[in-house]
Amino acid sequence: MRIPIIAGNWKMNKTTSETRAFCPEFIKLIDNVKGVEIVIAPPFTALSAAGDAIRDTIIKLSAQNIFWEEKGAYTGEISPLMLKEIGCGYCIIGHSERRQYFGETDDTVNKKIKTALNYEITPVFCIGEILKEREENRTMAVIGRQLKGGLRDLLESDISRIVIAYEPVWAIGTGKTATPQQAQEAHRFIRDFIRKKAGDKAADGIRILYGGSVTPENIKDLMAQDDIDGALVGGASLKPDSFAAIVRFS
Ligand code: PEP
Q1: Phi/psi at 122 (nearest 5 deg)?
Q2: Lower CB count within 10 Å: N or C terminus of the chain?
Q3: Whole-model pTM?
């Protein structure tokens, strides 16, 4: 059985003091929740404060990016060792905003996934097509290429430690969610890809999250799909009540 994951990507939102205010309120709202993994991904500057605030709760901590070296002359980067030390168990890798604005490629994504795995940080590996690619019926070709590049040279045992997030770029922050059927079709394609690359055990165990304008109103229909194992939530994860309502989808 795949345990669902609901992960909140705060992007470049919330200062340290805003993070300190969010956490206790959110913790209260998810009291008694069981059977779901809850993850928050604050910006780097708020990770430590978030880590302190969620200690001894079921909430886990994620970074939004990672560099592939442990230390050295890489101005502005954050290493896996630094993330590990403050208790980051997850890291979002290859988010479309990083691909779009910061030159992230399938190659750098692949390096970052390997690094995270080496440090026992679970990569939340993001893939997804832009609107033009969907309109030209190239969705599966694009996510197939991203999967192939991002997972290059990984062993079957590594692949089963990854979480994949399918995030159609046209649905991120736009209020335009993929229909449950569109999302399911992409998720099935991804699981079939993993089956061919890494076998049944990895394919049946890997968690594939949907991301793109997830709200308390649409989460239930998305989660009812066979191959959707959770959500990566942007905007709706910034308020304790809407994020808690998504966590409580069942
Ligand atoms: C995201 O940041 O990954 C995301 C899906 O954002 P939103 O939920 O705001 O569309």
Answers
A1: -75, 120
A2: N
A3: 0.97
